[in-house]
Amino acid sequence: MDRVKTFVEGFDEALGGGIPRGSVVLVAGTPGTMKTALTFSILYENVKAGSRALYISLEESQEDLRASMTELGMAGLEDMELYILDIGRIRLEHKDEELAKNWLDVLQKYIEQRVRVNGFDLIAVDSLEALYSLSRIDNPRRELFHFFGFLRSLNATSLLISEVPSGSAGGFGRYDEEFLADGILHLKQAPIGDTDVQLRIRCVKMRRSKHEHGDFALVRTGDKFQITRVISK
Ligand SMILES: Nc1ncnc2c1ncn2[C@@H]1O[C@H](COP(=O)(O)OP(=O)(O)OP(=O)(O)O)[C@@H](O)[C@H]1O
Ligand SMILES: [Mg+2]
After folding, report:
1. How many whole angstroms from 12 Cα to the centroid of ligand 2?
2. Cβ(20) – ligand 1 distance below 6 Å
3. What is the pLDDT of residue 148?
4. pLDDT tens-digit profile of 45-69?
5. What is residue 99's predicted lDDT score, i.e. its pLDDT?
6. Is 35 a pocket residue for ligand 1 (Cβ < 6 Å)?
7. Other CB atoms closer than 10 Å to residue 108's CB: what's the count?
8. How far is the CA of 145 from the centre of ligand 1 (A)?
9. What is the pLDDT of residue 233?
10. Shortest-distance atom of ligand 1 to CA 38
11. pTM tops 0.85
12. Residues 178-201: what's their mean pLDDT?
């Protein structure tokens, strides 16, 4: 099967080779668990390997995003087939229209057109919660079913960032995304003793894959992400 590599050292093997192409995958995690950095890096590394990618940022500006990803060691962003759509800027430029628009519809039309014209094969949305806050969703399960179905109908793999409130009882999305998604990657900060935390990643589910289910420590060293096994006593 054709798979999209995460290029996180060690993790693609744990996923059974990578993410099946065409999947809709949630990247879920509490604040500051590197959801943005990891997702962006998956796009970045794939673009270096020949993909064309669209990163849709709903709240972080293109400039801020580029700057922080460059700081993390992702060089040459200006000259790559990695297109950043900065919805924040469009919103600021069209303040009056903001409330009138249903961004779930707007985004769907935009993605459809751009995938047709530019041939993007990787799409990221950062984040679903920001998208919901701009959309009127009357029947979440039905509307998200159609949105996920739309993403699946594209010839692209989608990564959707899902913000999990810290201290929440569980769940990887506000509505029923966890059931609609083909895969879930969960990022969390695990307490180590009384004073420390360790960033961890876990593949909760990945349809069509025989993957590992356990936690791995996730670290960014130099210009790459890698995982190491967590040994519990
Ligand atoms: N090399 C590194 N190793 C570990 N953590 C780092 C490194 N560089 C930056 N960070 C941390 O990563 C965090 C930010 O990552 P990122 O913005 O991707 O997280 P996020 O989950 O998207 O956050 P938010 O919930 O605000 O959207 C910051 O807390 C930053 O200090
Ligand atoms: Mg983020």
Report:
1. 22
2. no
3. 97
4. 999 999 999 999 998 999 999 999 9
5. 65
6. yes
7. 15
8. 30
9. 54
10. 18
11. yes
12. 96
CB 51 within 8 A of CB 18: no
- Is the pLDDT at 74 greater than 90? The verdict is yes
**Structure confidence at residue 90 (pLDDT):** 78
* Domain, as residue range, for 194: 3-229
**Sole residue written with tokens 């993007």:** 120
Find the CATH number of the domain harbouring 209. 3.40.50.300
CB of 165 closer than 6 angstroms to any ligand 1 atom:
no
In a mutational test of the pocket of ligand 1, which residue from 34, 188, 201 has the highest number of ligand atoms less than 8 Å from its CB? 34
User: CB of 162 closer than 6 A to ligand 1?
Assistant: no
Count up the domains in the chain and report the number: 1
Ligand 1, atom 12: nearest CA belongs to which residue? 34
